Amino acid sequence: MTYLDHAATTPMLPEAVAAMTEALPVVGNASSLHASGRRARRAVEEARESLAAALGAHPSEVIFTGGGTEGDNLALKGIFWSRRAADPRRVRVLVSAVEHHAVLDSADWLAEHQGAVVETVPVDSVGRVLPEALAELIDRDPESVALVSVMWANNEVGTVNAIRELVEVAHARGVPLHTDAVQAVGMVPVDFAACGANALVLTGHKLGGPVGFGALLLRRDTACTPVQHGGGQEREVRSGTLGLAGIVGLATAVRHVVASQPGEAARLRELRAELTRGVLEAVPDAVLNGDSSSTLPGTAHFTFPGCEGDSLLMLLDSKGIECSTGSACTAGVAQPSHVLLAMGADRAAARGSLRFSLGHTSTAEDVAAVVAAIGPAVEQLRGAGRRRIGVRA
Amino acid sequence: MRVLAAMSGGVDSAVAAARAVAEGHDVTGVHLALSAKPGTLRTGSRGCCTIEDSHDARRAADVLGIPFYVWDLAERFTEEVVDDFVAEYSAGRTPNPCMRCNEKIKFAALLDKAIALGFDAVCTGHYARLSTVDGAPELRRSADGDKDQSYVLATLTEEQLRHSMFPLGGSTKPAVREEAAERGLSVAEKPDSHDICFIPDGDTRGFLRSKIGERPGQLVDDATGAVLGEHAGVHGFTIGQRHGLGIDTPAPDGRPRYVLALEPVSGTVRVGSAERLEVASITGSRVTWPSGRPLTEPTECVVQVRAHGGLAPALAEVSGDSLTLSLGEPLRGVAPGQTVVLYEPSPSGDLVLGAATITATAARPL
Q1: Neighbours of B153 (CB within 10 A)
Q2: A393 touches chain B (CB under 8 A)
Q3: Quick one: A46 exposed, middle or buried, by C-beta within 10 A (0-12, 13-18, 19+)?
Q4: Distance, C-alpha B313 to centroid of its chain
Q5: What residues does the Aminotransferase class V domain cover (chain A) (predicted)?
């Protein structure tokens, strides 16, 4: 099997599996006052400190969550509520056009139910949010902006945004910025303090940790009204008993991927270059989407003119090569990608695209398998696509 | 063979796929998403388009151990089936959307895509017997007379049928349910679908009203020409309809009135007594021959004019693309736009000879 869908989820690192396995039988609620409770609390706090250190954050800025979607919901809704409570004029929520649905749908919910006015920050043809575009949008009325949300790196095409510059634009206008860094951590250098963002979301399963565990990094000066109420854990921003083993697994994975990031990124960049070269050689009119000068090292996203992405995916799947068409809805229907549409692609191109995403288990053999299979698959679809079964006149 | 099993999420298509697997074919399951917004068309436990149905289809594929995908054919479905349905009604005709879906979606758009992907055939859970005799496909009625769906498959061309597979044709519905339970398919007890899948509440009139709006016209007594009332549009009626005509005055002879004819241009709905509904001859066009054998001489056959019932013996004659049928006994409720299917009676399942779209009817034999 050739697994090239690491951007969807990547296998757990052996180090994380080992740490979690060791932590699973440990008894103790980190909120309990007895010795077992203290032991659990200590493990959680050590995990918090190591995760914070790896990402340039202060331990008190780490809020453990149930993953990326929860983190984005909490950041969007929580910061919106707090900012508007402080000043009722702040109703505008500015989100980039290429955000994950965890951000887009949270923003839409705020618009439908909480009186937010959601505005889209456009991207250019390679999927970048330009600082001038953000500045212009804020400047229409800076006082009315509750927050800005721009992802660090795009999950479909892999384009990496200049987050620090975007933060500077927002902060110069007195506006906080949240960034969904789910695809970025472990793939590109991520430093919470250096980038200046008010909130940053990551999740375990995209970086070799467990599914269902993530973190929201939240600056102490940024108020965030809780979505979920209860025992008051995590600075009362996120109530709920802490999942010790998962948190330990998450922190172990973060520490590991951040430490190995420079070398691993270089290795993936080479594989990606090989993949891109091979695919474009096999299918000369294929288009590599995104921004090659500022991209995730392992993500290669192509449009294959004259092919439907889901057909191509199915053909490759039948040959043991696993990739993705982009985002899928609950019914499993491949919709034309909103990311490509925002980048100016037409609907046909947006439906004729595939994402190959490499990760820590990817090898040169994986790349060779795709390169060997893609040409015949595209040819088969294009050739057969012209044939029609005779139907009633 | 490489077989693509269309899996609606119901029990029939699940068992059909299971049988294809059992026969040793290389089977892949596909659920067709036919609504642009899944969940908005039907929200009940049945239908073709819900997330729940997609889930049921996926779970059936899991049990069978076959790959499974969801294909989005919503745009094609809207254009070819829903829009056509509305257009036909507004033209005063009575379409059969399930037939249209078979003709244009399942055995056209889906089949084309399947062939492009290297599949040899599309497998569905329809109740009809399909075999190849002397190199030509033969489509026959199902062994389950109540469930027989040969009528809604009869407009498929010979080429479409060559790439089709109906593994349930020789079975009865109770046997299929039993088999589903034995195979551990959770859809074994799922209720049958009845309504039109894109009309969630079964209110066809309401759906048409929302799409077409009001086009007022008059209800006219076909015999006397007397205006009996007003109506909101010919799309609110079908030929043979008796109830809900909205006429206050009873007929002079006290007998019930029926819709006899719809005239969309003038907006006139003609009504009259039952015997005036009776049709003795039918003209059709767009003739198809499932076995690729057009009738070359006048042929005695049995015709069927709607999905359930509406049978009569007839003499069929073909001239060019036109088919004329002289009925051995009159039929009621025959409307232009409906499909007439020609059968050759047989103890091994009546054979579909051909099918045509009804263009005109006459009360007298030709």
Answers
A1: 28
A2: yes
A3: middle
A4: 21
A5: 2-369
Interchain CB contact of A335 with B (< 8 Å): yes
- The band of A267, judged by pLDDT with boundaries at 50, 70 and 90, is very high
Contact criterion met (CB below 8 Å) for A129 and A150 = yes
Kindly state whether A1 is in contact with chain B, defined as any CB-CB distance less than 8 angstroms: no
Residues 309-328 of chain A with CB under 8 A from chain B are 310-311, 314-315, 317-318
- pLDDT digits 0-9 by tens, A54-94: 999 999 999 999 999 999 999 999 999 999 999 999 999 99
> What whole-number distance in Å separates Cα of residue B218 and Cα of residue B229?
6
> A389 and B70: CB-CB below 8 Å?
no
Q: Which of B70, B103, B115 sits opposite A384 (nearest CB)?
A: B115
Query: Given a cut of 70, is residue A327 above it in pLDDT?
Result: no
**pLDDT at residue B40, as a whole number:** 43
Strand arrangement of the beta sheet that strand A299-303 belongs to: A287-289, A299-303, A353-357
Rg (CA), chain B: 21
**% of chain A beyond a pLDDT of 70:** 97
pLDDT of residue B43: 38
Which residues are within 8 A (CB) of A201 and not within 5 positions of it... i.e. 6 or more apart? A65, A68, A71, A72, A75, A178, A179, A180, A181, A182, A214, A215, A216, A217
Place of tokens 């859970």: B125
Q: What is the pTM of this model?
A: 0.87
Q: What is the rounded average pLDDT for all residues in chain A?
A: 95
Phi, psi of B139 (to 5 degrees): -105, 125
* pLDDT higher than threshold 80 for residue A13: yes
Which pLDDT score, from 0 to 100, does residue A332 have? 55
pLDDT of residue B239: 86
Partner-chain contact B157 A391, CB within 8 Å: yes
The pLDDT value recorded for residue A132 is 98
Measured between CB atoms, does B124 come within 8 Å of chain A? no
Residue of chain B whose alpha carbon sits nearest to that of A377: B117
In chain B, which residues have their Cβ closer than 8 Å to the Cβ of A314? 28, 67, 69, 117
The pLDDT assigned to B242 comes to: 86
Q: How far apart are CA B157 and CA B78, in angstroms?
A: 22
pLDDT at A385: 63
- The encoded tokens of residue A236 equal 């009362």
Whether the pLDDT of residue A260 is over 70: the answer is yes
Residues of chain B with pLDDT under 50: 38-48
Assess contact for B1 and B25: CB atoms under 8 A: yes
Smallest CA–CA distance from B69 into chain A, residue:
A332
The answer to whether the beta carbons of residues A131 and A167 sit under 8 Å apart is no
Residue with tokens 């780490």: A62
Cα Rg, chain A, nearest whole Å: 22
B7 belongs to an annotated ligand binding site: yes
Q: Which candidate, B258, B279, B276, places its Cα nearest to that of B334?
A: B279
CA angle, A119 then A120 then A125, to 5°: 165
Res A169 pLDDT > 60: yes
Interchain contact A391–B (C-beta under 8 A):
yes
Look at B38 and A315 and tell me if their CB atoms are within 8 Å: no
